[in-house]
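Bug report (template v2)

What were you trying to do?
Predict the complex of my protein with NDP.

What happened?
Run completed; filing so the output is reviewed.

Input:
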Amino acid sequence: MEHFKCLIIGSGPAGYTAAIYAGRANLAPVLYSGMQPGGQLTITTDIENFPGQPEPVNGFELMEQMRQQAERYGADIRNGSVTAVDFSHAPYSITIDGENTVQADTVIIATGASAKYLGLPDEQKYAGAGVSACATCDGFFYRKKTVAVVGGGDSACEEASYLSHLASKVYLVVRKPYLRASKIMQERVASAPNIEILYEHEVRGLYGERFVEGAHLVHHTPEGDCKVDLPIDGLFLAIGHHPNTEVFRPWLDTDEAGYIVTIPGTPRTKVPGVFAAGDVADPHYRQAITAAAAGCQAAIEAERYLG
Ligand code: NDP
């Protein structure tokens, strides 16, 4: 059975940054890429807020650069998804693709989170062409345009207020007759003159030649449902994220939404030598740069743990 000093699970900014640092610390890290090599950034459009990139960089290219940087320092990057782990005792056992089990003295979990989508075929059709699940990443492309945000929680209100400073008009499409968001977020939305809340509306489809030009909505009224076509340039989903933590839940503490709980201010989990970095343990910031920083911390922790 193969035995590694440092095993990294996941290939987003957290995983690759952990691999760069662990490689440079002579830990000979092995990284398993998971189902979506490069992570969530490979499905967004251009990245304009990653420091050190003065020109917009394609998300796929940025992740490719991180991968090459990790390999340059000796990281062994492999295809494969972790399907089971045993953290009952060190060295820890990790099963890849249900068949191959390896052992590791330290494990850095950087499996990320996935934005929830409505499940409409049009979300796929217009991916990168008017559909996004990250206003901070993509909002800039909708300056002076009309957008809609779907959801009624804190994320949706936060995305809507962020977009209200860029777009000329923001519709907040809420399926219930009320918002679930906290009072302060509701007040923020109410105070933005260019946000209009469409209560009891649901998105059923999108239209547009190459890019989104509008959304087909259904409005639930006491008299029955009626169809409404809403001209928009972009649709932002903000109906929650789910962290990719299923295989770790028997061994680690997770919060009620499934995010891995770490010792505050550190990437340490309750299992010594097992660390969590990036969106998998972060319901709040969810940025490439914060994930990268957490990956760096996790690699430094792994190095110190190994002594
Ligand atoms: P939430 O689960 O709180 O809210 C999700 C929203 O999306 C709800 O309004 C829900 O509607 C709606 N929704 C879910 N599925 C669908 C669907 N299929 N169609 C239409 N609408 C749908 O998720 P958030 O991401 O907003 O928040 C997650 C956690 O993070 C919360 O604890 C939140 O407080 C926290 N957070 C805090 C922030 C802050 O304090 N600044 C910022 C962002 C998040 P319904 O109400 O009908 O279920």
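What did the reviewer find?
The mean pLDDT is 96. The pocket of NDP is lined by residues 118, 150-156, 158, 175-176, 180, 239-240, 283 (CB under 6 Å).
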